[in-house]
Amino acid sequence: MTKNKSALNVMKGIDVPETVSKDAAKRFLSKRKKELKVDEAVEGILSGNISILSAAITLIESNLPKHQKKAAQIIEKCLPYSGNSVRIGITVVPGVGKSTFIEALGLYLINKGHKLAVLAIDPSSEQSGGSILGDKTRMEQLSAEKNAFIRPSPSSGSLGGVARKTRESIILCEAAGFDTVFIETVGVGQSETKVHSMVDFFLLLMLAGAGDELQGIKRGIMEMADTIIINKADGNNIDKANLAKKEYENALHMFPPTESGWTPNVLLTSALQNFGIEDVWLTIKKYLELTKKSGYWLQRRNNQAKYWMHETILESLKNNFYNNTKRKKLIKDFERKVQQGKISPFEAAHMLLNKYFSK
Ligand code: GDP
After folding, report:
1. Which of 48, 140, 173, 356 is least enclosed by beta carbons within 10 angstroms?
2. For residue 271, which atom of ligand 1 is closest to its CA?
3. For the chain, first and last CA: distance in Å?
4. How far does the centroid of ligand 1 lie from the alpha carbon of residue 271, in Å?
5. What is the reported pTM?
6. According to the model, what pLDDT value does residue 13 have?
7. What is the helix, strand, coil percentage profile of the chain, to 5?
8. Is residue 93 a contact partner of residue 222, using CB atoms and an 8 Å limit?
9. For ligand 1, which residues put their CB under 6 angstroms from it?
10. Cα–Cα distance between 271 and 204 in angstroms, integer?
């Protein structure tokens, strides 16, 4: 660990705090010593048992084939009870005050009698093997609420795999009675597209005063937004926030009309001072009313289901192809030959695939 003394490596020394849910799941599994049965899991989830919900999500996240099989059966049985939540994507730029915002909006909803699940897709998981700080420590008040369930991003695997697991977790959360689900991500890579493909409403949280480039925000992400929020609109920052609001409003006007018929808007919030939080929820409600009436909401959910069928097929094929000891060795051999220019990448791919399909 002392190999590299660069300050950039300090993070590696920090223990990743466990979350309530993961702890609960582990305790639950270790207390029982034997594994959760499918029917027991489904019954527990439908009765709103959080420990069982957590344990079932742990099965979804596991890469062991026997866990995956069990998870698939649990999901299948929960499916008829799912679909009834408002699914909200929250994409943030770094430093925007994500945890403070989610906590403020979350507590507002809990006080209104909602049951809220907060799930995540962490773009860093592919490289770092997990987020650096757990969500529990950052959303202390919200995680203490019995009607809130906070679960960090699955911590390993490809982005596609992580997103699929989050998508499946939504189903279990809905079956457990959560009527509102947040899916959060930091919009610096591809994860925001995955989030967009599993939610009804897409919020983009930005900061005033830092240019789009500085915030790492691509035009494509802005185009996905149903509402852009400029957080930290307080204190000395108010003028800058108002200016940014105008700029973003102008930028949104340049985009082509949305398929949903909704006109994306820009809101100011101060999560710290609880300003503008109610407006966010009222906006979401207005959007739902409009899109449910027009039929767009259902059409979008149906299209998302189709998309996820294909994503699941692609992921299974990929896993099946790559997770084979003999083939791994063969792939390495071919990689070497390709690098040495002894064979073209296309020929190598065709030979490997032909071998796979004729097995
Ligand atoms: P995250 O890293 O994006 O999850 O950000 P946090 O929610 O942990 O907040 C980072 C810092 O920004 C903290 O010091 C917060 O107190 C501060 N912060 C969050 N929201 C606001 C806000 O609305 N206004 C101001 N002035 N500060 C905020």
Report:
1. 140
2. 23
3. 44
4. 8
5. 0.85
6. 32
7. 55, 10, 30
8. no
9. 92, 95-100, 138, 231-232, 234-235, 270-272
10. 14
**Cα 162 to averaged position of ligand 1 atoms, centre (Å):** 26
CATH number, span 35-80: 1.20.5.170
Ligand 1 centre to CA of 348 (Å) is 50
Contact 53, 172 (CB under 8 A): yes
Nearest CA to ligand 1 atom 9: 97
> Looking at ligand 1, which residue's alpha carbon is closest to its atom 5?
97
How long, in residues, is the chain? 359
If one compares 154 and 147, the residue with the highest pLDDT of the two is 147
State the alpha helices, DSSP H only, in 274-358: 277-294, 296-322, 325-339, 345-357
Strands of the sheet containing 148-150, edge to edge, are 148-150, 116-120, 180-186, 86-92, 201-207, 227-231, 265-268
Place of tokens 């596991």: 62
- Please give the CATH number for the structural domain made up of 82-294: 3.40.50.300
pLDDT digits (tens, 9 = 90+) for 40-58: 999 999 999 999 999 999 9
Tokens of 225: 């937004």
Q: What is the pLDDT of residue 17?
A: 40
- What's the average model confidence in pLDDT over 261-282? 96
Question: Under a CB-based contact definition with an 8 Å cutoff, are residues 119 and 181 in contact?
Answer: yes
What's the rounded Cα separation, in Å, for the pair 242 and 246? 6
**Weakest-pLDDT range from 7-16, 141-150, 160-169, 283-292:** 7-16
Distance 182 CA to ligand 1 centre (A): 18
Average pLDDT value for the chain: 85
Best residue among 272, 277, 280 to mutate for probing ligand 1's pocket (most ligand atoms within 8 Å of CB) is: 272
C-alpha distances in Å from residue 18, one per residue of 126, 151, 261, 306, 354? 19, 10, 42, 34, 45
Which residues are bridge partners to 186 per DSSP?
92
pLDDT, tens digit, 9 for 90 and up, residues 250-270? 888 888 888 899 999 999 999
Domain boundaries, the chain: 35-80, 82-294, 311-357
330-342 pLDDT tens trace: 999 999 999 999 9
Q: Do the domains at 35-80 and 82-294 have one common CATH topology? A: no
